[in-house]
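Preliminary data (for renewal application), coenzyme A complex.
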Amino acid sequence: MKAAIAGTGSYLPERILTNMELERMVDTSDEWITSRTGIKERRIVGPDEATSDLAAAAARKALEMASVDAEELDLIIVATITPDFMFPSTAGQVQRLLGAHRAAAFDIEAACTGFIYALSVGELFITGGKYNKVLVIGAEVLSRFVNWEDKTTCVLFGDGSGAALLVPSEDEERGIISTHLHSDGRMWDILMAPAGGSRMPIDERAIAQKLNTVKMKGNEVFKVAVTKLSEVVDEVLQENGLGEEDIDFLVPHQANLRIIQATAKKLKLPMEKVIITVDRHGNTSAASVPLALDEAVRSGRIKQGDRVLLEAFGGGLTWGAALVRW
Ligand code: COA
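Predicted structure:
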C-alpha cells in the first residue's frame, strides 16, 4: 500500500515586506539581496497571528481540496521551529482550531527539512495501516525569531504555511514512492537560535544580545547544502532505479535561488521544471516545500502521473527528499 497526497493547501499572511523596505531598516540593498538569494519580498504575520493560525488556514484548504471533514482526521503532524508555545504542541492548537476532535496531534522539529520528515512519518502511519487520514503541515512565523538589526539573516526569512492530506492510495502507481532522511548533529551550531531552550534559558543577557534569534554562518551552510542536496538527489534516483529524465518536477526548499539552481543542474532539469517561490516568500523553513507544492498543484503545473521530487535542507543539520507519483 502507498500513501497518496489527496489534497494540498497553503496560506500566506497579507503583509508584504519588500527589499526596498528592508533597505530602510538595515544596511542592505535590493541588488545585494536579489543577486545573492533571489528573494524580492516575503510575508510577515499580523500582530494577532501565530503559527497555528497559519497552519490551520493551510489545513482547511487541503481538507477542502480532498473533500474531507476535519472530524475525519486521525492524525495531525505539524513541522515547525517557531511553535506557538514551548509546550503544548502547535499540532494540538491546530486540532482545536479545526475541530478535529478524533485526531492525535504532535509536532516535529527538523528545521527547514521538517516537512519532509513529517511527510515520512505520516506515510508510515498510513502504510502501516494504523490511520487513514493524516494531515501533514509545515508552518512558521520566523519574523518573530529573527534579529531585525542583523542584515545577514533578517533579509532571508518569511512567514507562511503549507499542508498535505495523506490517505491510503487505491492506485499502486500513485503516492509516496520513497523518502530519504538525513541528519548530522555535529554541525548544529552553524544554523541555530542559542537561547530559549534548557541549555540557555532566556534571561536579560540573552535578550540584550538577541540570542533567542536565528544565528547563521551563511557561507558554511551554503556549501554543505549544495553538497548534501546533490547526494540525496543521487540517492533518490539510485534507490528507485531512475534517471534524471524520469523526474518531472523538482519542488525544492526555498532558501536561496543559487542553491536551487545547483540542484536543478545536478538533475539536468530545465528551470521550468523547478517550482520557485523564493522570490515572493523568502525562506519559510518547514513551510517552504508544501507552500511551493500547493502553488504548483493549484496552478495545474503538477498533473496526475508526474514524478515530483521534494527536497530540503536545514538546521540540525538535517536534509532529505521525498519522491511522489502524483
Ligand atoms: N546586505 C548587504 N550586504 C550583506 C548582507 C545584506 N543583507 N548580508 C551580508 N552582507 C555582506 C557581508 O557583511 C559581507 O561583507 P564583507 O565582505 O564586507 O565582510 C558580504 O556581504 C559577503 O558575506 P557572505 O556571508 O560571504 O555572503 P554570501 O555570498 O555567502 O551570501 C548568504 C550570504 C546568506 C546569502 C549565503 O551564504 C547563503 O544563502 N547561505 C545559505 C543560507 C541558507 O540557505 N540558510 C538556510 C538554510 S535552510
